[in-house]
Amino acid sequence: MTELRFDNRVAVVTGAGRGLGREYALLLAARGAKVVVNDSGGAMDGHGTDTGPAEQVAGEIRCAGGEAVACTESVANAEGGQAIIDAALDRYGRVDVLIHNAGNVRRAPLSQMSYADFDAVLDVHLRGAFHVVRAAFPVMCDAGYGRVVLTSSIGGLYGNADVANYAAAKAGIIGLSHVVALEGAAHGVVCNVIVPGAVTRMADGLDTSAYPPMGPELVAPVVGWLAHENCSITGESLIAIAGRVARVVLAETPGVYQPSWSIEAVGERIDEIRDASAPVVFPVVPSGHADHIAYSFAMATREGSGHA
Ligand code: NAD
């Protein structure tokens, strides 16, 4: 198998001072990428800053013979997002890969979650994604090339107790990724989402003794492929957890058509409406939005005219 390399590519990895992001940065650098190691440091709830983690990972890369620069700006505001992308442009003159991975966690039951905790988590995960994408996307489009990887979570797909902020942010990232993929398609910019699972400091306090091997090194190759020029998919989400790699599929039931509905009719037909035995999938790119509408209109035209 030919080794897939990143020579002459410049990658920005947010939250790369620890955990998963560190693993992504080390892997890309080992394969020849010049890496902006972004991390503002700080505690898991986002409080505080520390230049140590980013500088340490950038140092590790350089010691191993690679190229890296540390950037300790926060992704949580527009100026920070721009500064992170500028670090790549100022130092290396381009940005080919953007991996938005930075994350914080603030847990509270829904009925007790403060607006400050809701905003602090959206600021890093979702608005943070927008801040770095907003700065990098025009540069990538002008260059005719880009690989964007955004980070969702099992919590974003299925929810989890005590993390309304995190679940909302992680689901929102999938919506953002679809637009990056759609608008980037004509410019050589592809965008996909990683749904990782790995034992990092985010697992602090959990009993992981019965877990199968679940290190970040089992996730990094998936992100590496999504970040590589060989990546042949866009607008998709891949799962990587404990050695399992899979695709997340957004599917609809075929549904049922009636020319008019009542509350009672919905109730009577709810099992048919929900019948997921023959799911329909509309790939985001090139035309998931239009395909959804066309499918619905075709049903109305076909069944409304009595030609079921
Ligand atoms: P981690 O806490 O080890 O690493 C996250 C890094 O992001 C930290 O080093 C932190 O300093 C940095 N960071 C936080 N706020 C920042 C900001 N404003 N600007 C720049 N950097 C900031 O966590 P991890 O487990 O490696 O998580 C990485 C990503 O993967 C996160 O987005 C997380 O939500 C996601 N994720 C992780 C898991 C898992 O199982 N570990 C599961 C699902 C999703």
Q: Top keywords for this entry?
A:
8-stranded mixed β-sheet; globular; 16% strand; 308 residues; two-stranded antiparallel ribbon; binds nicotinamide-adenine-dinucleotide; 42% helix; alpha/beta; single chain
Summarize the structure.
The protein has ten helices and ten strands.
Account of the 3D structure:
This protein has 308 residues and is of the alpha/beta class. 42% of the residues lie in helices and 16% in strands. It is built from 10 helices and 10 strands. It has helices spanning 19-30, 52-63, 78-92, 115-143, 154-158, 164-184, 220-227, 263-268, 270-274, 288-304; strands at 10-14, 34-38, 67-71, 97-100, 146-151, 189-197, 237-241, 244-248, 251-252, 280-281. It has an 8-stranded mixed sheet with strand order 3-2-1-4-5-6-7-8, with helices on both faces. β6 (189-197), α7 (220-227) and β7 (237-241) form a beta-alpha-beta unit. The chain is globular, with a radius of gyration of 21 Å. The N and C termini lie far apart (51 Å). 42% of the residues are buried. Bound molecules: nicotinamide-adenine-dinucleotide. Nicotinamide-adenine-dinucleotide is lined by residues 14-15, 17-21, 38-42, 44, 46, 53, 74-76, 101-104, 124, 151, 153-154, 196-198, 200-202.
